[in-house]
């Protein structure tokens, strides 16, 4: 950091990375320390007092003392151009005793070159390396800590590129914003060795995908067999039997699928370390996709937490006597319950207030 003084104004040049500017600066701010002449604190205490100080040892009656000042400055990525960023902060310069005002602070941010995020004209290119597991379960990545892009499995491959229009930088004399480009690349075995947990999750995904394909095939066959060769659909007792048989088939498949969902939900609860954040997002995406798939077959979770205990849908396995909630309300859900077409498949295992 270089510092220059012009009258009561201060000019600073700060070297920062583009990643810091676009991610930390809008939210946390960049901390800058510099030498600054400020109003003497000792003299200021006696300004409104009837007692007057004759000889101030802090400023020697100049009413100004030099201090090392530290401040945090925030900005938005919209202020960035491909040459850097120059901003003016009022009343952060030197103190002027004659006017009783502070000068200005001029800060020029020089952007360091980085390998994973850089300017291409006024466009910003950001490279993201993901693991094979993230490729399988989908991806969620942020645009300057405010907006997010969600990509489901199958929407990107080993090399993909996504655009966020209007989230890039500027060029000099051109006030139209550039584009933020996300370049997605998948790590190979030399860059990332999957852990046992990742391998287990990917294996579970394979099993669930196979089960889903088998179920969809059975449902498709049942639908085709429901009509006779003349194209007429059965009715009466025969139609009721077919409908009941199909419902039993769907219920059996769901009952086989629920333990896998329970395992993923338990794994998600146990992942609380910051290093597990990527895995948490991946498993959350898997669970969201599974719930959407179940909803297509009219399968839904039973609402439980915070609701009144319903013996027809809830199974109380514990009592919570320490809660302040009213009596006979569900305080915790130990295992989710499900219904299919309004019929109970499995009650929710809950803890109830007493």
What does this structure look like?
This protein has 354 residues and is of the alpha+beta class. The protein has four domains: 2-112, HSP40/DNAj peptide-binding domain, CATH 2.60.260; 117-186, Urease metallochaperone UreE, N-terminal domain (HSP40/DNAj peptide-binding domain, Sandwich), CATH 2.60.260; 195-297; 299-354, Head domain of nucleotide exchange factor GrpE (Nucleotide Exchange Factor Grpe, Chain A, domain 2, Roll), CATH 2.30.22. Helix content is 29%, strand content 33%. It has six helices and 20 strands. It has helices spanning 18-24, 41-45, 132-137, 196-225, 237-270, 277-296, and strands at 2-6, 9-17, 30-39, 64-73, 85-89, 95-96, 101-102, 105-112, 117-120, 123-130, 139-143, 147-151, 159-165, 179-186, 299-301, 314-320, 330-335, 338-340, 343-346, 348-353. The strands form seven sheets. The protein has a four-stranded mixed β-sheet with strand order 1-2-8-5. It has a four-stranded mixed β-sheet with strand order 9-10-14-13. A three-stranded antiparallel β-sheet has the order 15-18-19. A hairpin with a 3-residue loop joins strand 11 and strand 12 (147-151). The longest helix is centred in the C-terminal third of the chain and has 34 residues, at 237-270. The radius of gyration is 32 Å and the shape is elongated. The mean pLDDT is 77.
Q: What separation lies between the terminal Cα atoms?
A: 63 Å
CATH classification, class level of the largest domain: Mainly Beta
Radius of gyration from the alpha-carbon trace, in angstroms: 32 Å
**Could you give me the name of the CATH homologous superfamily of the largest domain?**
Urease metallochaperone UreE, N-terminal domain
Strand content of the residues, in percent? 25-35%
- β-strand number: 20
**Overall average pLDDT:** 77
CATH architecture identity of the largest domain: Sandwich
- Could you estimate the helical fraction of the residues in percent? 25-40%
Largest sheet: 4 strands, mixed
| H/E element order | EEHEHEEEEEEEHEEEEHHHEEEEEE
Count of spatially separate domains: 4
Annotation field: number of helices: 6
Keywords: Chaperone, Cytoplasm, Stress response
Protein name: Protein GrpE
GO biological process, one term: protein folding
GO molecular function: adenyl-nucleotide exchange factor activity; protein homodimerization activity; protein-folding chaperone binding; unfolded protein binding
